[in-house]
From TrEMBL:
Its EC number is 6.2.1.2. Pfam families: AMP-binding. Keywords: ATP-binding, Fatty acid metabolism, Ligase, Lipid metabolism, Nucleotide-binding. This is medium-chain acyl-CoA ligase. It comes from the Eukaryota. It catalyses: a medium-chain fatty acid + ATP + CoA = a medium-chain fatty acyl-CoA + AMP + diphosphate. It is an enzyme of class 6 (ligase). Residues 49-175 form the AMP-dependent synthetase/ligase domain. GO terms for biological process: acyl-CoA metabolic process; fatty acid biosynthetic process. Belongs to the ATP-dependent AMP-binding enzyme family. Signal peptide: none annotated. The keyword Nucleotide-binding applies.
């Protein structure tokens, strides 16, 4: 089965299914290490560049006001590498470290997901409806070294900081600055 995406026929669904079927039937070896960011996104970037795959958006986000963000596979790969650098350099995170992300589903939420996969950082997503008590519980249970949130939820995070002994860095996704917080957009 194929699907159409803006006029381009893509056989990705059938290709993915046949790839996994060949692994389950022992015709291909299961990879010892798998990283979605490098093994899928970067591979699709190469196929697009080589003209072996039609150029389709890897990411297409539209908000309720009709504003769009559209990234190609190459752009998503580049932005996720930059985000991984922000997490490792500015936030001091390493492979295996944990991060709590409490954001609405804005483009940065997806960048964080892919960047964490790329860098081997464990992501704990949280809904933007969490209370301060919920946030504290997640920080303590996960032993997160970093939290990412927006301007709206930053005060709730700040109210529980004294009880968050593992937290080393705070990253804010927003336009303004906030004392003691790193600004994601500026660092990116």
């Amino acid at each position: 089965p194929s699907r159409t995406f803006h006029g381009n026929n893509r056989l990705l669904t059938s290709q993915i299914i046949s790839h996994y079927e060949s692994i389950s039937h022992g015709q291909k070896e299961m990879p010892e290490h798998f990283n979605f960011a490098s093994d899928v996104l970067d591979k699709w970037t190469q196929l697009e560049k080589a003209g072996r795959k039609p150029a389709n958006p890897a990411f297409w986000w539209v908000n309720d006001k009709g504003e769009e963000v559209k990234w190609s596979f190459e752009e998503l790969g580049s932005l996720s590498r930059k985000t991984a650098n922000v997490l490792s350099e500015a936030c001091g995170l390493q492979r295996g470290d944990r991060i709590v992300a409490i954001l609405p589903r804005v483009p940065e939420w997806w960048l964080l997901n892919v960047a964490c996969m790329r860098a081997g950082i464990v992501l704990f997503p949280g809904t933007s409806q969490l209370t301060a008590k919920d946030i504290l519980y997640r920080l303590q249970a996960s032993k997160a070294k970093c939290i990412v949130t927006n301007d709206t939820l930053a005060p709730a995070v700040e109210s529980v900081l004294s009880d968050s002994q593992f937290l080393k860095s705070k990253l804010i996704v927003g336009q303004g600055s906030r004392d003691g917080w790193l600004n994601f957009k500026e660092l990116l």
